Amino acid sequence: MKKEEEMDILESYEKGEWQSVANLKEEIARYQLYAKETLAQMEKITIPISAEDLHSIQEKADEAGISYQALVAQIVREYANGRLIQKPLAQ
Asked: How far apart are CA 74 and CA 76, in angstroms?
């Protein structure tokens, strides 16, 4: 999360715009279940990558305010769903 977004959240909180839900424990349990189910569906892989490429990905992820693992997962998801097209290799 970027610093600007954090400041917006803090300002909103300080204005009293945030309210607790009545059934907080149930809501926490519900979202914990969502997280567990999502993680259970994830597969981990190990791939070799150059230090230069990793550094570039980490910089781009930092600019986007996400982890580099999340960025790589997003790139793979977009490619797998046909939203990211590979350019033909020069011959």
From this structure: 5
Cα 91 to Cα 20: distance, rounded to the nearest angstrom: 60
Cα separation, 1 vs 67, in Å, equals 9
**pLDDT tens digit string along 10-27?**
999 999 999 888 999 999
What is the residue extent of each domain of the chain? 19-80
In the numeric block, the tokens 């204005």 are attached to 15
Query: Does this model's pTM top 0.85?
Result: no
Strands (DSSP E) along the chain, which ranges?
Answer: none
Q: Answer whether 77's CB lies under 8 Å from 69's CB.
A: no
